[in-house]
Amino acid sequence: MTLDSLDRQIINQLQTGFPVSDEPYAEVAAALGTDEATLLARLQILLDERVLTRFGPLYRADRLGGAFSLVAMKVPEDKFDEVTEIVNSFPEVAHNYQREHAFNMWFVLATDSEARVAQVNAEIEKRSGLPVHNMPKLNEYFIHLDLKVDDQDELS
């Protein structure tokens, strides 16, 4: 997909915050010099084309009485897509990514309780037939990261 100027502005704008208001999409659209319908349509295209893999809030589950956990698995390459489907089928999976390492699949769980972390991991282990390595958060650090997209960037 080739990104035009508006697509790039949408990506850059939505990384740095989203207004809490009665009409947040209209507010963002106005700041970008477009209308709400165009913004929503473009955002959907970016999601459909997998330029963006998700758009939504990141909740501090632990502050809401829930739990976060980082999880790692060693997944044979020939089963990677199958296991990805299994892992990503759980709504508690905040994000999932592949690494070049013996532990080549890493994902984050955001659940309503510590018990649910254990339940999801047990179900993934059962359905995939592979061990799941749970690594709960001990300390939390915040690093601000914006991945700005400019006119020289190409996506493939």
Q: What report would you give on this structure?
A:
The N and C termini lie close together (7 Å). With 156 residues, this protein is an alpha+beta fold. It has a four-stranded antiparallel β-sheet. Helices cover 37% and strands 15% of the residues. The radius of gyration is 18 Å and the shape is globular. The chain contains five helices and four strands. The mean pLDDT is 89. The protein has two domains: 5-48, no CATH class; 61-136, Alpha-Beta Plaits (2-Layer Sandwich).
Keywords:
alpha+beta; 5 helices; 156 residues; Alpha-Beta Plaits; 2 domains
The largest pleated sheet is described as: 4 strands, antiparallel
Subunit arrangement of the protein: single chain
Number of strands: 4
User: Number of domains in the coordinates?
Assistant: 2
Instruction: Kindly report how far apart the N and C termini lie.
Output: 7 Å
Proper CATH architecture of the largest domain: 2-Layer Sandwich
Query: Strand arrangement, largest sheet?
Result: 2-3-1-4
CATH class of the largest domain: Alpha Beta
Weakly predicted, low-confidence segments: none
Mean pLDDT, rounded to whole units?
89
Q: How many DSSP helices? A: 5
